[in-house]
Design a protein that fits this description.
Elements: E1 6-7, H1 18-34, H2 38-42, H3 49-52, E2 58-62, E3 97-101, H4 111-117, E4 122-127, H5 129-145, E5 153-158, E6 161-166, E7 171-177, E8 183-184, E9 198-200, H6 205-208, E10 216-219, E11 230-234, E12 243-247, H7 250-268, E13 275-279, H8 318-333, E14 338-341
Parallel strand pairs: 1-14, 4-7, 4-10, 9-11, 10-13, 13-14
Antiparallel strand pairs: 2-3, 5-6, 6-7, 8-9, 11-12
Domain Trichome birefringence-like C-terminal: 106-338
InterPro entries: TBL, TBL_C, TBL_N
GO molecular function, one term: O-acetyltransferase activity
């Protein structure tokens, strides 16, 4: 079986710093389109830097000089779901933690270089709140460099999509809400916290037709698959002859959904045009015992990251990641490459 190509994003800490994670992810995404020399332009990295520095081996450091990369309260693209300061959070030190690689320094993000490399292209994030966070952070970083008042930036919500455009560069960056990739009763971007998840395990076209013309696709889908039971639907929502079946084989159902996703990619993606990525799950961070709290503790009132390198959390479900890796390996044998970002 072919080995899976990986980028290791999540090993630094259980709590994602989305300023940093989004920065590294998009660096490698666009580099895959524009070639290795792209690193020099986007982040102003000297020649040979990437070959001699492991950007993903490092530690969290507190930096109240150069961070935060943007101020959430001033970002016009920030959704209320993520607007902590807007709704009264006083402790903002969480914004000032950055990753420090062991053997080098990570240069600053360059929004103009990013948009230049995205000229005439379309980048689409697809999935749940993890990718929505990545998307939102990227837009805020761009806006902090190119103020919206310049009329060069715009964004609009349309159905399951949030569409950002930089008109001067003819560049589009989009987020598409599809938390299970296939169709489900969780597909409303605003009203999706349903108690009983119902999935049309073989149906994806309703969503996927909006991804066909993308130059770069970044997928993720994990959180909604962690429940103990899932209801499968054969037929259409609201149809009198639809068949519903509640199943407890969570990992098997997830595998079936990824098979539907894989089949769509194989039949619709232009291999010479579109670059594909799949983001890993966020490490579990609700069990306080993992960072030496008393039994029964959680992350409430925690204000600093977990500093132990490689932390995953005792309850992190790695079985789902193994299923993703297997699906990506099978796609590669069918001539389609997907980069797994772990």
């Amino acid at each position: 079986m072919a080995s899976t190509q990986k980028l290791v994003l999540g090993a630094l800490n259980v709590s994602y710093n989305f300023h940093f994670a989004g920065l590294l992810l998009i660096t490698f995404v666009i580099a895959s389109v524009c070639g290795k020399q792209y690193f020099q332009g986007l982040l102003m990295i000297p020649y040979g830097f990437v070959q001699h520095c492991d950007l993903f081996s490092g530690r969290w450091v507190y930096d109240n000089v150069s961070y935060p990369l943007y101020k959430g309260k001033q970002c016009s693209f920030m959704d209320d779901d993520f607007a902590c300061e807007k709704f009264g959070r006083k402790d903002l030190d969480y914004q000032k933690w950055r990753s420090q690689p062991h053997d080098c320094d990570l240069p600053r993000f360059n929004a103009f270089a990013l948009l230049k490399k995205l000229r005439g292209k379309k980048l689409v994030f697809v999935g749940d709140t993890l990718n929505r966070n990545q998307f939102m952070s990227m837009l805020c970083q761009i806006e902090s460099s190119i103020p919206q008042s310049s009329s060069k930036l715009s964004h609009v919500r349309k159905g399951n999509s949030i569409i950002f455009k930089a008109t001067e560069y003819n560049a589009a960056i989009e987020f598409y809400w599809a938390p299970l990739l296939v169709e489900s009763n969780c597909d409303d971007m605003e009203i999706h916290h349903v108690q009983d998840c119902i999935v049309r395990i073989k149906a994806i076209e309703k969503h996927a037709r909006y991804w066909t013309d993308a130059d770069i696709l970044v997928f993720d889908s994990f959180a909604r698959w962690l429940g103990s039971k899932t209801t499968l639907l054969w037929g259409s929502f609201g149809s009198s002859d639809a068949i519903y079946k509640e199943v407890e084989m969570r990992l098997r159902v997830y595998e079936m959904a990824l098979n539907t996703w894989s089949d769509w990619l194989e039949n619709h993606i232009k291999r010479t045009k579109t670059k594909l990525f799949f983001m890993s799950l966020s490490p579990y961070h609700k069990n306080g015992e993992d960072w030496s709290m008393d039994t029964g503790g959680n992350c409430y009132n925690e204000t600093e990251p977990i500093l132990s390198e490689g932390h995953w959390g005792s309850l992190t479900d790695r079985g789902t990641m193994q299923i993703v890796e297997s699906a990506i390996q099978k796609l590669e044998t069918r001539g389609l490459k997907v980069m797994l970002v772990v």
